[in-house]
Specification:
Layout lengths: L3 E8 L2 H9 L8 H4 L2 H10 L10 E9 H8 L5 E4 L20 H29 L1 H8 L8 E9 H11 L6 H15 L7 H6 L3
Antiparallel strand pairs: 1-2, 2-4, 3-4
The structure holds flavin-adenine dinucleotide.
The site of flavin-adenine dinucleotide has 11 residues, from helix 7.
Length: about 200
């Protein structure tokens, strides 16, 4: 009954980002030049030379409630595909329950969602012969509750990831999307050998 985030993959590194900036002079790297990468990355970010950061990317699989899914969709500079209740019956009945609610209200929400899911499946069955399975599925989802969890894969380039973290890993953002953003950040920090170490440092993480 929790939202989850998994890192599916990543492309690039601090070095790829630095080389993108150095394309304007020379991309040739030696040890001496490699040592300049942290300072260069910091200078690029602090002075607003952000396009080299588009050369790195991070790709996540997110299983989350509909409200958080909508928050993710608002970020236009990203790429998102999601599980579709138009194309399949959502058989798993995955739900989200806020962990900061009192138990009595958590139980109410679970009951409410269970009732919605029961009607969802019954409605598909009842409408199928009249409207066809496709229309039955796509319209029966109106019984799904807002706390239904759906799966999406979302990819950001490192420039848009910084914008996402700034806006969503923030006290002003809703708790659920804030936790998703924090999970994403932790996953990127924990990539083997920390390839985006200096990039994350330059953003203040
Ligand atoms: C605390 C909070 C509350 C919010 N409340 C609401 C709300 O009540 N209602 C609501 O509808 N939304 C709300 N939002 C969503 C918000 O309005 C943005 O849609 C969302 O945060 C995506 O931000 P973005 O445009 O920076 O990101 P992206 O869409 O990923 O864009 C990234 C950056 O690219 C540039 N960019 C993208 N598209 C354009 C463009 N067309 N023209 C110029 N530059 C562009 C901008 O620099 C932008 O910052 C809220 C967001 C937050 C964080």
């Amino acid at each position: 009954m929790k939202n989850t985030v998994e890192l599916l993959g990543h492309y690039g590194s601090d070095e790829v980002i630095a080389c993108s900036a150095w394309t304007s002079t020379s991309r040739k790297l030696d040890e001496k030049k490699r040592k300049r990468i942290p300072k260069l990355i910091d200078m690029l970010w602090s002075e607003g030379h952000e396009t080299p950061f588009e050369k790195g990317s991070v790709h996540f699989l997110v299983d989350c409630d509909i409200a958080s899914h909508i928050h993710l969709l608002k970020h236009r500079i990203s790429s998102l595909n999601a599980e579709s209740a138009r194309y399949k019956e959502l058989k798993e009945d995955k739900i989200f329950v806020p962990d900061d609610w009192p138990e009595a209200w958590q139980n109410e929400l679970m009951l409410y969602a269970a009732h919605g899911n029961k009607l969802y499946h019954e409605c598909i069955e009842a409408l199928e012969s009249r409207l066809g399975r496709k229309r039955a599925k796509e319209s029966a989802r109106f019984f799904k509750t807002y706390n239904s969890r759906i799966q999406a894969d979302v990819q950001f380039n490192m420039r848009s990831f910084a914008n996402f973290l700034k806006l969503r890993n923030s006290e002003h953002a809703q708790k659920e999307i804030r936790e998703i953003a924090q999970n994403m950040l932790d996953l990127v920090k924990n990539i083997e050998d920390n390839p985006f170490r200096h990039t994350l440092n330059s953003w203040g993480y």
